């Protein structure tokens, strides 16, 4: 009676899904609200930096030609004809053997082409007029930050889709983005299924557990950059469920369900997909946990049928829904960064499917350590909050031992990588497995 | 004329400041809004997990005593008297040689003390009654997840002050936190100073630059977990500035100013502190950039006088203001995590002060690489958005070379460390410096 499902590889599931990726629109938010959004357009320099020739130090602006020949035995004397602070413009033209006291960041006065550092000038006053002696010559251009030497007007400083961190905010301010074009966050609907589920505010009763997956995924959607919408739990009645899904599709960009994708009597989703006439892209993926993860397309819209098992639900979201959300936000690097780490525990039992184990990233002597969490019965729940990596263990006929190199997917990463990089790292992981003896 | 200031060590400045740390209050937010907040109380299990003895697999619940002696040549036959899905309770008591078909997660029926996995049962039907033959005996307790074996009621699952990530949200839901106690975020006021500053919406003019520090710090406050309040720019008039600062102190928990802390004529802050009668904890710190960073206490309230130089402003915030904000949020680990990385570029020029260089964390063969950014004149601005570490280079008489081990402070870290760990890592860094030959 049990339906036979053919498992496909994780990367094949991603590729099928990516055929239906969508990109959202752009809205403007005040710069104060931009942190945590994603650039909706490339961030472009609207002016040269510096915008004018300026002094990088406190000192005296001079004409370099007047310093020629200055030495300890033959100092040159300059008359200080004024002072210029940052933000001001010195109005007069500076003449022969004249100098202007200049502050860090101030504009070089007309006529000057060098700045003498404060400590090289011996200052004194005669009859209320300020002078200094200089015992070293300056070259033209010395101690001047020239217009555009940092950044030319028109330079792309960050690409669309970039996560807006404090450094990006500084750039936005520098270049006059009072209103910042940001990617509109996709609306991601969440429906929980499972007759054993109580809502979070309900008292426990025998046989039941509280619905934690929906809230977990809700937070994962936020972390990924989406706008989650919790649409409640499925009813026990098939027709009502069908209407729930149909109506949800009109309200959201993507729809996630948790649970109900296995082949049991209580699992309505395969039937709902069929009745919708949806295109099932995959309903079995060669991965643990989460092999029942189902991805479906209906009228160009993606539906993610995540597992009801909390670990599988978590992993399915990060591998599949997360990059689809980031694509919507205009980035070219929608996948989480993968790096090499040393496995911190044994996984002696072989598994034909690729495993993605939640873990906590440790560091030892400058190396990354992949510490699995929730392996023991006694800490599945309590260790959940520590997860910041997925440890990827390619499927095969052999197990893994502590000390081997493995790939880890960095869950808190904001930079991201392309699909090609995401997949390339797998190859490395397979290689380490073949050569596992080397790494023990 | 120039005031002499005595530099103190970074760790001494932190310790002086920590004498005036404050802890905020607690408020309740709906669980949906809890992601990105910080736990205001310890997260405690309100029930055992599992809450009842349950089946970890699909199978048949049986009485182990009935399986005694079952073997290939002598199978035991069981009558299947019912079925139980997750969320349901089987009402009858299971008797001799009886079994109940049980789904993953469902409660073990009364009388049963073992679960036989589906693949070990040979099922058949006789006159509409379901049976299965079993060819192996089960032990009492086999394939049962017992009440409380994962987590005991009352266990502390995460400490107050913990950043609420998706895993923590799952725990909050599991344990019935429909409303979550979160730390109230401190109000952090920001005032920008500098006569060269234009506001972000203003057109550029000669000699001026747009105010980027205030917006950068605004985002840094958010990342740290505070609630930033931008109070605008200082006026050019001392008395007005004094009133601005005095009034700001009534509205905020902490006050940041950017710029105006040097000893120049345009730097009002030292004078304002004096007129307030504030207690200057430090006005010179042995660090680069940011040696002018000034920390002041007035009636128990901390004022951070950050440098007007963007790098110095950024670094001063992360080293000093950030831990004060995290303390307010109830954490015991308010400092950013420090790890060992391989330096990616030369810093040949020695500096007597500790340097904190903004950098981008790279990875190579499982090792952390510290890539400095903004070192060349040509990319100070454009590389700003990439900063995710501060590279710490202890002061001394020698420079640093690419390939040496250095400490890096992880700017995106949410876990944090205690003051002791933060300082301990410094010692390591000093050691690597002494042994630098080894690491090149």
Automatic annotation (TrEMBL), chains A, B:
One biological process term in Gene Ontology: Mo-molybdopterin cofactor biosynthetic process
Catalytic activity: adenylyl-molybdopterin + molybdate = Mo-molybdopterin + AMP + H(+)
GO cellular component: cytosol
MoaB/Mog domain segment(s): 189-327
Keywords attached to this entry: Magnesium, Metal-binding, Molybdenum, Molybdenum cofactor biosynthesis, Transferase
Cofactor dependence: Mg(2+)
Pfam families, per the entry: MoCF_biosynth (PF00994), MoeA_C (PF03454), MoeA_N (PF03453)
Family annotation (NCBIfam families): Glp_gephyrin (NF045515), molyb_syn (TIGR00177)
Identification of the protein by name: Molybdopterin molybdenumtransferase
Species name: Ornithinibacillus hominis
